[in-house]
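hey m, so remember when u said the C-alpha cells were messed up on ur end? i reran from scratch. heres the input so u can diff it against urs
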Amino acid sequence: MEQRRTRHPNNGPRRGAQPPAPLPPQARRGPAGERGPTPGAARAARTRRTVRAARPAGAGGRPADMKLTGLGSGLFCIAAMFLLGYLDQLLFGASGTVYGLLFLPVCLLTALWVRDGDVLSAPVVAPIAFTVGLLPVADGTGGLAGRLMGLFTGLATQAGWLYAGTLAAGVTVLVRRMRWAGQRRRQS
C-alpha cells in the first residue's frame, strides 16, 4: 500500500533559523576571481594525507599493519581450530594433547592479529573456537546424544588446554591494550 506524504517539503527557511555559516577561506574567491578548492575536495585531500601517514606501505604497496576486525579474528580462530581438529583426527587419531598444543598458537595469533579497537574480542572467541574445533576430535557414537556426550567429555578432559589458551590470549590482549593506552596518552 502506498503511503502519502503528510508533510509539505521545506521550500523556505525555517522560523528562527540562523543564517548559514560563512565559507571557509579555501572556498572563497581568490584575487583573480577564481574559486579555491571546494570544501569536499579539501576534506578528501586531508583524509588521503591522514590515511597515508597512518599506514606506511609495506612490501608490494600493501599497508604494513593489516589487522583483522573482531568478527574476522573470530572467524579466523574458529575456522583454524575446526580445520586443525580434523587434521588432528586424521593424522593423530583425535589426540587431545596434540589438539591442545595446536590451540595455543592459534590463540596467540588471534590476539596479535586483531585490530586495536577490537582487541578484547580475542579472549572471548578462544573458548568458542576450542569447542567448535573439538567437534571432530570428540569421541561420539550413537547419534546426536552420543556426539554431545563426547563433546562434553572432551571439554571436561581438555579444560587445562582451554584455560591455557584463553589465558595466553588474555595476557596478550592486556599487554597490547596497555601499550595502546600508553601511546594514546603520549600523543595527547
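this time it looks ok to me. Residues 70-187 form one domain. if urs says something different then somethings off w ur setup not the seq
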